[in-house]
Amino acid sequence: MRWSFTPSPGRLLPLLLTTALLIRTSSQADTDTDTDNSNSGSGTIWATPHEQYSSSAGVLGCKIDTNRVAYWPGSVDCNNICVTVSYAGRSVTLLRVDTSQGAHDISYDAWNYLYTGSSAADQPATGGAVAMTYAYVDPSECAAAGLLHAGAGDKLAFSAPTGTNLLVSCLGAQPDSWVARNYALYNIVDAVCTWGYDEECTLDWPAANQAACPHTLGAMESLAVADPVYNIQYGTGRTVLASTGQVVEGGARSSGSSSGSGSGSGGGGGGGGGGIGIKGLNGAISGTYHQLWSLMGCWVALQCVLVGFL
User: Signal peptide position in this chain (predicted)?
Assistant: First the structure.
């Protein structure tokens, strides 16, 4: 028996149209999954909880409210570092001082408050990506919300030994930017403030790109700051020291945080290095969704071929 490979136009056309529709829908899903396509403006994100404080920009956790930090894709900006995130009638103001590989993580306590209305230290919840709206706002709103603890509560504190890349970039390329005009430098080596000296340094820019401090810059001295950096454990609500992971009895909270709602609710954040959180969950969900559509498209294409045999 000889098979004929000439398809019936009446049968093939509907299947081809279906395949095209599936491909178009899958492509559209890529753009509709998350509307945060820039470092400014407003839109919708799939927010995920982030347990440990970190900052690729070199911002010191002991000088900010680490319960109110955004860990989002893209580089940290010289101006757009303050963003409000809202859900179910509740809002928080966040400092965007770290990046992610694709997920829109926010501090666990902030996520918990938006999701449940309570601090993660009081009523810890678990869950994954939740659709929330965001809008970038003037950085002064982060200062007004009590997120900045350096200077008179209006300066963003950087590590003088290890965290000046963003600052120098802003000073050089955008000298009138908010970061270039509202920074402080401290002789603290790491983001969770465990090494160095809790002392302010000066930078003679542009004559120098290295800060001058009372003690040796970057000295690895064990440091006990007045406001240690804490993490709130995901799912348990326990407060732990970011530097050691030791549970703090009584649920001690980062200085400057309040137990009320909004920008200052909850306990201390903290932790150096990469954040644990539920990083990448949004991307995983999106990837699985698109794979299913691709498989469906392949199946329809196979049917188109088989039609030629009938």
Answer: 1-29
